[in-house]
Each structure stands twice: as structure tokens, then as C-alpha cells.
């Protein structure tokens, strides 16, 4: 035994017990975090319905929710609540359902990236349109 070596004493034993307890506490915290993550996923998915799956060639309407600022800044007399909720119909030219992404044929919009998440697209039949006679 070398002088000054403190590996063989009550302090070393207490330190190793403390380290072992910390390891168990970390593993316990990881288990609780995983449990909470699963509960969050359960409650988040409980109210979500099945996602719409589109095929190439389907006609869809595109949500204008994220474009309201563009409409109102271009014309100050334009009020956001009178802006149409959907734009289109557009034809799907590429379908990536594993990513919930669809590429649309946007003929008059060359500066817009044509791939959208499925939450921004709706079947043409689901969008209510009114005609003024």
C-alpha cells in the first residue's frame, strides 16, 4: 500500500456508494422521462384522426393560412377575415406519403417551393365553395 492512497478507507467506500446511488438515480430519471414521453404521445395522438393520403393526379386545395400576411401587406384595404381559406385546385405531381409531403403543380407561382405537408392540402370535395348568383 502506497502512502497517500485513499482507496482503502471508509471515505472511498462512502464515495463509491454515492456514485452507485447517483447512477441508479440517473437511470430512474431516464425511465420516468420515457414514461412521460409515451404519455405525451398517447394524449397528443388520441384526438388526431387518420391522415389523408393523396395519389398523383388528385386535385387538392391549398390552405392560405400562412399567406394572409402577404395578402394584407400588398393591399392595406384588404382584411384578413375576407381572404379565401383555400386556393386551388392544384394537381399533385409527386406523392411522398411516408413524409406526408406532396408536390403540387403551381403554374402561376414560380417563386414558391411546390412541396407541401399534408396538413396544408385538402381534398377538393371537402372544401366548401359558395357561388354568388
How do the strands and helices of this protein lay out in sequence?
Layout: H1 10-46, E1 59-63, H2 68-74, E2 86-96, E3 101-104, E4 115-117, E5 121-123
Antiparallel strand pairs: 1-2, 1-5, 2-3, 3-4
Characterise this structure.
- This protein is an alpha+beta fold and 133 residues long.
- The chain has 2 domains: 41 residues; 68 residues, no CATH class.
- The protein is 33% helix and 20% strand.
- Strands 4-3-2-1-5 form a 5-stranded antiparallel beta sheet, with no helix packed on it.
- The longest helix has 37 residues.
- It is elongated, with a radius of gyration of 29 Å.
Give the gist of this structure:
With 133 residues, the chain is an alpha+beta fold. It has 2 helices and 5 strands.
Task: Provide the descriptors you would attach to this structure in a database record.
5 strands; 133 residues
Q: How many domains would you count in the coordinates?
A: 2
Shape: elongated
**Beta-strand content:** 15-25%
Weakly predicted, low-confidence segments: none
How many separate helices? 2
- The largest sheet has its strands arranged as 4-3-2-1-5
The radius of gyration over CA amounts to 29 Å
First-residue to last-residue Cα separation: 102 Å
What average pLDDT do the residues reach? 82
Q: Which oligomerization state do the chains in this entry correspond to?
A: single chain
Structural class: alpha+beta
Order of helices and strands: HEHEEEE
Q: Tell me about the largest β-sheet.
A: 5 strands, antiparallel
Total count of strands: 5
